Amino acid sequence: MDILTLLSLERSSSVGKGRPISYYTPSAPTIMATLNHHEVGNEEEVVGGDDEVVDVDDLRQRGNHEFQQGNLSNAIAFYTSAIDHSKPPPTTTTRTATNSSSSSSYIVNLCNRSACHYQLEDYEQALDDAQMAWITSQQSNVKAAYRLTKTYLALQQSMTAIEVIKTALTVPDLSDMEITTLKDLLQQATNLQQQEQQQDPSSSSTTAVMELSIKNVTRPISIREFNKESSKKALGVGNFSEIIIVTHKITKETFALKILEKKQATDLAKRQHVSVSLSGF
User: Fold this and answer.
1) What are the φ and ψ backbone dihedral angles of 48, each rounded to 5 degrees?
2) Are 105 and 143 within one domain?
3) Rg over CA atoms, the chain
4) CATH number, domain with residue 114
5) Is 214 contained in some domain?
6) What value, to the nearest 5°, has the Cα angle with vertex 271 and ends 269 and 277?
7) Is residue 183 located within the same domain as residue 236?
8) Residues 14-32, buried b or exposed e (16+ Cβ, 10 A)?
9) What's the whole-model pTM score?
10) pLDDT tens per residue across span 197-223
11) 187 and 90 in one domain?
């Protein structure tokens, strides 16, 4: 676990002082069904319907527990509920929202949910949460900067990552650990940028921002980067696999995607990940 993943699970550990916390781990749908009936509020403890009290920080703690146990879907469910109950109202100004305790919780839980999506390699969702946290904090929350930078690096967007880190390094009153961590990230982003320039010096100013094609990229490609062409029939169906037509969300390139069920892939190939192969048209 990297150094600020611990920070993203985060600085406050005061919930539960004086009383034990027991963790029950139902499935994510069960968690969401239980949590979604509460009303949105603006404080750390929110009064919902029927005088029920929602403890936002307790939801965060429970999400942290699920994250540490590797139950990422359950963790996302807890963080999502915490986000819903701490989201600043639309009438709140950005400056007021940044300084309120509920908005601090909102930012923290966005970062935590982003970390879950990152672990699941769902980088688009991770990016959305990290960007929202960074914007809500008026580009002053180091953890949001960390999560955003990590996601940009995973997406091979080194120039954007460098811009975020440089902004984060100007935040007042940074701790020595935060400065060290940000500088380490800056070095990673700089190294990635140099690799991109060596591979294609002519496009060094644009490659890091947006890819025009994924056919020759060296980074890992996630199945979540594609949209299924629902209007077109499957090209083929086998005992353990299916071939469908997909379009990349960014480059709009069309591919034939062969999907092998994860369990079957594990049994047949003795591997932990889905076997995915792409063929361009």
Assistant:
1) -105, -160
2) yes
3) 21
4) 1.25.40.10
5) no
6) 75
7) no
8) ebeeeeeeeeeeeebeebb
9) 0.57
10) 777 655 444 444 456 777 777 777 777
11) yes
pLDDT tens for 38-82 read 433 333 444 444 445 678 889 999 999 999 999 999 999 999 999
What pLDDT digit, counting tens, does each position of 150-163 carry? 999 999 899 999 99
The pairing of strands 276-280 and 254-260 is antiparallel
Residues 190 and 229 in one domain: no
Contacts of 248 (CB under 8 A, 6+ apart): 214, 225, 226, 227, 254, 255
Write down the pLDDT at residue 161: 92
* d(C-alpha 212, C-alpha 209), whole Å: 10
At which residue do the structure tokens 């077109």 appear? Answer: 232
Q: Is residue 211 part of a domain?
A: no
- Note the pLDDT of residue 200: 63
- Specify the amino acid at residue 254: T
Q: Which domain holds residue 183?
A: 3-199
Strand partners, 242: 237, 259
> Mean pLDDT over residues 3-19, rounded?
42
DSSP state of 39: P
Measuring CA to CA, how many Å separate 219 from each of 108, 153, 155, 211?
A: 29, 10, 8, 11
Q: What are phi and psi of 55, to 5 degrees?
A: -95, 105
Is the residue at 116 inside a domain? yes
116-141 pLDDT, tens digit each: 999 999 999 999 999 999 999 999 99
CB 242 within 8 A of CB 276: no
In a domain, 252, yes or no: yes
Q: Write down the mean pLDDT value for the chain.
A: 75
- Considering the domain architecture, whether residues 34 and 134 belong to the same structural domain is answered as yes
Backbone angles phi, psi at 54, to 5 degrees: -105, 115
